[in-house]
Amino acid sequence: MPLKIAHINLAKGLRGGENQTLAIIEGLTCFDVEQTLVCRKNSPLEQQATKLNIFVIAIQKPFLLNVKKLKSFDLFHVHEGRSIYFALAAHFLFQKPYLVTRRVLNKPHEKWLTKLAYKKAALIVSISKKIDAVMREFCPTQQFKMIPDIARRLECNSQEVANLKVPFEGKLIIGHVGALDDSIKNQSLILKAANQLREHENIVFMLLGVGKDEAQLKNLVTELNLKNVMFEGFKTNIADYFALFDIFVYPSKEEGLGSAILEAFHFKKPVIAANVGGIPDILGDNDYGLLINPFDTDELSNAIMKLYQNVALRNHYAEAGFKRKDAFSSDKICRDYHQLYQQILNIHA
After folding, report:
1. Where are the domains of the chain?
2. SS3 of 19, please?
3. Which tens digit of pLDDT belongs to each residue from 57-79?
């Protein structure tokens, strides 16, 4: 009989962790598993899962009143921090195991219930070395495994990409994709670099995303009178924009892994990213892209100019990144998860 897995993600939005949840569910369809996504009712995650024909149990607060809906599953896979308490309750009620994928760098709260929830997990999966180190310090007696995020295969519309390119003929497009949360994603560094490079009229900066700091960042563009920066907002056709970019920049101040970099790799885009968190797990020691200090505008500007002036180097990183993405393929990651499910269930049989 197939394993019955409940994937639990109670996030309000649809960001990197939610897209990875969906990617794992889709990748596991090749294996002998029955999968259900447990998510917030009327959330963007529920809507996207429904579009992908993923079976959903949509719940609303108080979440714990819905625990009985997990009774028939063999294993619970927790994909974000708030969901762990829901899995803990189901574990106590039905004596079923659960594992947790940890995607953020910050240490969980030191509250007794949080510590209990991570202690009772059958295993904690970390998506990068830095997260693994943080979680081992938080819960030293726990079992751990490192499995990175998936390099999602996004499909672009070639005609739409061609249409998008028309206004930018002869321009080098420096692209960025991320929630406009400057305290984490550090878009202000991109704007400061754009200011330093404003004399290069054929270099333009394009930022995709929405978020709490959108007005603040647009005000900075106005203050600096930048004509080389554009905000494109939220786009459903994100793949078309990855295909449009010439260089992808990702100067985050912290990052669990940086799955957007993997998406840029898929479109053979050279990457400049911050030397923080899990990003070096992807880029190595400047092997697959250029690493910069996220607090140094000059470093970002110089890295952009280095790739701008050296087409051969740009092509080198484009090819290196494209090959590197294979280490993060859906087949590999989902095979690792499937083996993990089997191991946990054999231990708890």
Report:
1. 3-150+329-347, 158-327
2. helix
3. 999 999 999 999 999 999 999 99
